[in-house]
Amino acid sequence: MNFNLALPVGTTLDRFIMRKEKDFPYATGELSQLLRDIALAGKIVNREINRAGLLDVTGAFGQQNVQGEEQQKLDVIANIRFIRALRNGGEVCAIISEEEEEIIQTGNTKGKYIVAIDPLDGSSNIDVNVSIGTIFSIYRRKSETGCDGTLEDCLQNGTQQVAAGYIIYGSSTMLVYTTGNGVNGFTYEPSLGEFFLSHPDIKTPATGTVYSCNEGGVNSFPEGIKNYLNYCKENGYSGRYIGSLVADFHRNLLKGGIYIYPSTAKAPNGKLRLMYECNALAFIVEQAGGKATDGNRRIMELEPTELHQRCPLVIGSTEMVDKVEAFMKSEVAV
Ligand code: AHM
Ligand code: MG
Q1: Concatenated DSSP letters for 252-300?
Q2: Quick one: pLDDT band at residue 51, thresholds 50, 70, 90?
Q3: Does domain 210-333 have CATH number 3.40.190.80?
């Protein structure tokens, strides 16, 4: 008899969340339920992505989002799925989504939480079977319950996050999240329909030899970034850039490395959005022992003034991010 067939299947995401809830003395279970709502929507979106070539869900939707970028059909579907899950769950009073200009009021005025979400990041990779992702941040509302979420509730800085995570739809689908007590990763088992703990207590290497950056725009990068990229080349580093933030970030988190999206002539404040891309990944990387800055300042301390605010992003292994900061300070070739 092959006893391998009877090996334990491991810890499910639900059980893990339940266990962790006991670590918070006054936990009411609402944050746990909220994380489960996100995981459920993630499973549904994963199903749509896996069948994308067979259904009429690839290609452009025919409209632009609030950033003036062309929306893909799957962007729109993912947005609907996550908003519906969060609305039905009842724990969230308001949502910021990359796909919607204004704050989305869920109608759950008793909900204690705010979610900022990029429902499907890496849109340009959707139609070509390259990894894409979902990124989310969770905040506690500041206003009293009983009314809609306010702009002030939504514009909290990254240090106020109570949880953050991402789902990577890759060669396997994974959910990685933190509630401020380390980072844990769960791999989706499609035949059982469950996420299982596969990467407990993720720690990112202090340094690495991989840099991820779209060098197409290098001519308009700040001098400090240009100099850092030259340093990478002189030292034989490898360039790895998929153009899907979650995928580039995830690889560097596990293997060591740095992701850079600086200011460019085309995007003077960088391209990525503070509220639903940068802050979430900054929280995760810090919890894993890494670092996230805009080249000078800690991402999580940037004060948001707009829902869709952009900022440069330098994120990954601490020693590499420190090196970029040193180059940014000196702004001279070394
Ligand atoms: P999106 O939110 O419209 O998908 O844009 C974000 C994406 C990131 O996933 C990726 O790292 C970056 O944009 C790629 O941009 P570029 O094509 O300029 O390199
Ligand atoms: Mg995005």
Answers
A1: HHHH--EEEE---SS-BTBSSBIIIIIHHHHHHHHHTT-EEESSSSBGG
A2: confident
A3: yes
